[in-house]
Every structure is written in C-alpha cells, then in structure tokens.
Design brief:
Layout lengths: L2 H22 L24 E3 L1 H14 L10 E3 L14 E7 L4 E7 L3 E7 L3 E5 L2 E5 L4 E4 L5 E5 L5 E7 L1 H6 L5 E3 L13 H6 L20 E2 L1 H11 L10 E4 L14 E7 L8 E3 L3 E7 L2 E5 L2 E5 L4 E4 L5 E4 L6 E7 L1 H6 L5 E3 L2
Antiparallel strand pairs: 1-19, 2-3, 3-10, 4-9, 4-11, 5-8, 5-10, 6-7, 6-9, 8-12, 13-14, 14-21, 15-22, 16-19, 16-21, 17-18, 17-20
The chain binds fe (ii) ion (FE2).
The site of fe (ii) ion has 4 residues, from strand 4.
Length: 351
C-alpha cells in the first residue's frame, strides 16, 4: 500500500470509528458512503409524467359517484402523484383535480399554503374568498391566497371539474402548515360582490387612491375572456422560440406573478410550431386546454391531447412541437417565482 493509500485508509477508519460516537451527541462528519453534498447541476427524483384525460375522466366519474365529500376533508380530489416523490406532484406543489356534484358544498376553511383553481369543465359553482363571492366558469383562474377563508357551493346542473394547486409540498418542508376550519359550512358573503374584480379586474385602470399594499395580490379572479383577448394581442409580437405565444397572469398592483410561489401562464402553440429545447430551475405542470401536440421532456416523448396533464421535473430539457393543423392552448403552473426570489434561477436555451 502506498503512503497516500494508507493515509486514505486511516482517514476512512477514523471517520467510521467516530460516526457512532458523534451521533450520540447529535453530531456528524462526512462519511465515505454519503451522497455528494453538491451536484454540478440539479438532480431531481421527480419523474416526467403524462396523464391522459380519457383515464382521468373515467376515474373522476367513478369518484363522483362512489365518494362522499366529507371524508376527504370536504373536498373530492384526484391528486396527480409523482412516483419519484414521496409527496406532491412536484417538489413544491400538489396539483389535484377537484370534482363537485350539483348542490354540493366544499366547506369553508383557511390554510397557510397558497392555492388557486383553474376551471377545466363545467359552470355554475360560486366561490367565496374572504367574503367576496365569485362565479366560476370554464377557463377562469381563481386565487385563494394563503390564510384567506374559502368555500365553494355548486349551483349548476352538471358536475364541475377544476384544477386545484397548492404549494403544500413547500409549506410542509418549511414546517409551516396552519389550518383553520370555519365554524359554519359557508362564510357570510360581503356587501360588495366581486370587489377585487371591480377594483383591479380591468388590469389597466383602477379607482383612484393609495396603491394597495404590495404584500398580497389584490385581484382574486382572472377571466377566460381576458386571457383569450391578451393571447390574441400577443400573437402579433415576435414568437418565443421555446413557447411560441406565452403570457403570465400578473399581479396588477406589483407586476409580478399572481402568487408569490407560483406563476400561472397561458400559451398557444400555433400549427407547425417547432420549439427550441430549453431547461430552467424549478418544476412545472401543463394542462391542455385545447388542441394536441408533442412535448419531449428529458428522454420521454409525450403526445398529448385535450385534457391531458404533463409534468416536468426541475432542470429537465423540454421541447414543444405542434405538428397539427389547429392551435394548441396550454395552461401552465410553475414554481419559478421561488427561485427568482432567492436569486437562484438558472435557464439554458439550446442554440
Ligand atoms: Fe383549501
């Protein structure tokens, strides 16, 4: 054995010998079999995923018939569980599909995770958020910022299905889960209906007076009509090489993302679009609003259609293609605001 090899053997023996002794005092040193403290680029156990609508819809209809709302925390949800993670759809959030039958009440509560709903199918539900009451229609985005009371009451004739996303994976890691049930099934509705929408919904003009406190987004709902109109305008701009036409739902007071930990986006891939491969910090989930296309995620190829979901792990290369003769429209949520806030956002675009 050379001198260097003997030294290394001594060092390994010393580390192993100290392991148990240090552990009894709540201490440790690096051990030869420890995984590396640093990796050159992010390595995630999250797996690229594709959930097809035909399968999801069949399960949802079954759940709607056989499951009561109450035992599931007064919510009937089908969670998109990533097989590479112990918890969550991605390392920071859970995406679930909520199914509510006519006449059902998703009772009032509040919690520290931020949440939003994007209405996938159906109309007629009304939601109350801190006393403000809104209708929920297909294509609408509805926020329930953390610690806001919220409940949903379905007045329509057909079941409603929406995407429910909470940054609960993150809040759980931070050991900061707080939850309060409301003492009644539903909270009282305030005297000014749709107040935040009336004040900030135009996105361009608002009542005169002091600017709102920047801590919370003052707007609670974003309508499908406004998103569609904005996308039509954006089609006249230069296309994004990776995402074609893509817009972010903005906080009208501060100009940042609609929620502090989650950025919601709507994008259109026009017929013939061949995207450039790119990757960036953080995870994302797509829901196909309309059309069909293909996304290459890491080593996987996903040929998706209307109603499907696709999940992309952190730092996974992604390329979008639309080989069809109709537009594809995608709703997306990602956790990029967290990385930008911490000043650790990385992005790479293939040249
Ligand atoms: Fe909730």
């Amino acid at each position: 054995m050379t001198g260097t090899a003997a030294q290394a053997a001594d060092d390994t023996a010393a580390r192993l010998r100290l392991r148990d002794e240090l552990a009894r005092s709540g201490l440790k040193i690096a051990q030869p079999d420890d995984p590396p403290l640093f990796t050159r680029v992010p390595e995630s156990s999250m797996r690229p995923m594709h959930w097809r609508w035909a399968e999801l819809e069949a399960f949802l209809q079954e759940l709607g018939q056989v499951l009561d709302l109450r035992p599931g925390g007064d919510r009937r949800t089908l969670r998109l569980a990533n097989p590479g993670l112990e918890y969550g759809t991605t390392p920071t959030f859970w995406a679930s599909i909520q199914y509510i039958n006519p006449g059902e009440v998703a009772t009032a509560h509040r919690h520290t995770p931020d949440a939003f709903r994007f209405v996938m199918y159906g109309n007629g539900c009304r939601t109350t958020i801190d006393g403000e009451n809104y209708s929920m229609s297909e294509g609408d985005l509805v926020l329930t910022p953390n610690w806001a009371w919220h409940d949903h009451l379905h007045h329509g004739d057909e079941p409603m299905i929406w995407l429910d996303v909470l940054d609960v994976s993150l809040i759980r890691k931070l050991d900061n889960t707080f939850f309060d049930p409301y003492p009644e099934d539903v909270q009282p509705v305030g005297e000014q209906p749709e107040k935040s929408w009336r004040e900030f919904g135009s996105g361009l003009l608002r009542p005169v007076g002091a600017a709102p406190a920047p801590r919370h987004n003052p707007l609670l709902v974003y309508s499908r009509e406004q998103a569609d109109a904005a996308l039509e305008l954006a089609k006249g701009l230069d296309p994004d090489p990776c995402d074609d036409v893509i817009l972010e739902y903005q906080n009208p007071a501060g100009g940042g993302p609609a929620l502090p930990s989650m950025s919601m986006k709507m994008q259109v891939l026009r017929p013939g679009f061949q995207g450039v491969t790119h990757r960036h910090s953080g995870s994302k989930v797509y829901w196909v609003v309309e059309g069909a296309g293909t996304s290459f995620v890491g080593d996987e190829r996903f040929d998706w259609g209307k109603g499907d979901f696709v999940a992309v792990p952190p730092w996974s290369p992604v390329r979008h293609v639309n080989d069809h003769d109709t537009e594809a429209k995608l709703f997306r949520v990602d956790d990029s605001p967290l990385y930008r806030t911490l000043n650790i956002y990385h992005e790479e675009i293939a040249r």
